[in-house]
Amino acid sequence: MRVWIAVALVVVTASRLEAEPEVALDDARKIFPDAPRTCVDIECLIESAYAKDGKAKALALALYRETGNVAGVGPEEIMDGGYRGKIKLVPQLPINAYRRHLQWVLDGSRSIDDFFTRLYDKQPKPAFRWRAIQLRFVRSVGKRTPSAYAIGWLVAYNVEGTLLTSANGVRETYFHEIFHTNDGAHKDWSTRVLQADYDAIVAKCGTKMKCLAPYAPNDTTVRGGTYYAFQPNNGNGVHEYAAELAVRYWEEHMAVLAKRKPSKPAFKCGPPENARSWKALVDEFFAGRDLTPAC
């Protein structure tokens, strides 16, 4: 499920912006349930959990030291996956055969960090948090969904997820989920601001992809269904629409920063609903910074 639903301290390093959040030790203990109580810092928790895989341990420590993100495990649970049905999830540390997922998360975190550092160099900072995220690695049993979901400043990552089979897939999904955490922190912004336009689009198009195509921020689809942003029985769909819109912002601005031609026409230049949603997103989360060409 791409429904990725803290304590602030000041940390100054060469690789971080001036003021940023930090995962609290007590919160980190929850994603390292087998760690010894003698650990008095997060690095100790990481070293203990990853002791059997030195390469994974190095990746997990690099992730924490560079971005403040902490990679542990989630609980065993039966989750209600909406249109996916009931899904059993079990804890799965990203070691050995699953180590590549930790590498992809580290690469994605570095890429996202670089994106914000470059886009907001000597600019007002965005009201968007992308560091100090708790990562709960899990494995689905008998299914390959959800790929990920979010709760607060915590993102669950399914090592068997269908969207998490490449570095690009992980980076895009992770950005999508991080937006969910920010959406919630902004008092469910997407419901308050985008719901009316979203409902009007659904009332007009239902699940017909040809009708929805001009309004879909991205081309992610559900097998046998429709665009992910408009998939029924997936919670309040406006949350997914907003997260896909944030991914579109990231993709379009990645192209701007790289000085390459966008692979798609500017989203804001589509129907009026697109322009309204785009501006609202940019103003709320990205400090009004829109470098995409005017329509």
What does this structure look like?
The structure is a single chain. This protein has 295 residues and is of the alpha/beta class. The chain starts with a strand and ends in a 10-residue tail after the last helix. Mean pLDDT is 91; it is low at 1-18. The protein has nine helices and nine strands. It has helices at residues 25-30, 42-49, 54-67, 99-119, 167-185, 189-205, 209-212, 237-258, 272-285; strands spanning 3-4, 7-10, 19-22, 70-73, 77-80, 86-91, 134-141, 148-151, 154-158. The chain is globular, with a radius of gyration of 19 Å. Helix 4 (99-119) crosses helix 5 (167-185), helix 5 (167-185) crosses helix 8 (237-258) and helix 8 crosses helix 9 (272-285). It has two domains: 3-185, no CATH class; 189-285, no CATH class. Strands 1, 4, 5, 6, 7, 8 and 9 form a seven-stranded mixed β-sheet that branches. Strands 2-3 form a two-stranded antiparallel ribbon.
Number of domains: 2
What is the tally of beta strands? 9
Number of helices: 9
Give the ordered list of helices and strands. Answer: EEEHHHEEEHEEEHHHHH
The helicity comes to 40-55%
Structural class: alpha/beta
Largest sheet, strands/sense/barrel = 7 strands, mixed
User: What's the end-to-end separation, in Å?
Assistant: 34 Å
Average pLDDT score: 91
Short description:
This protein has 295 residues and is an alpha/beta fold. Helix content is 42%, strand content 14%.
Feature tags:
9 helices; alpha/beta; 2 domains; 42% helix; two-stranded antiparallel ribbon; disordered N terminus; single chain; 9 strands; 295 residues; 7-stranded mixed sheet
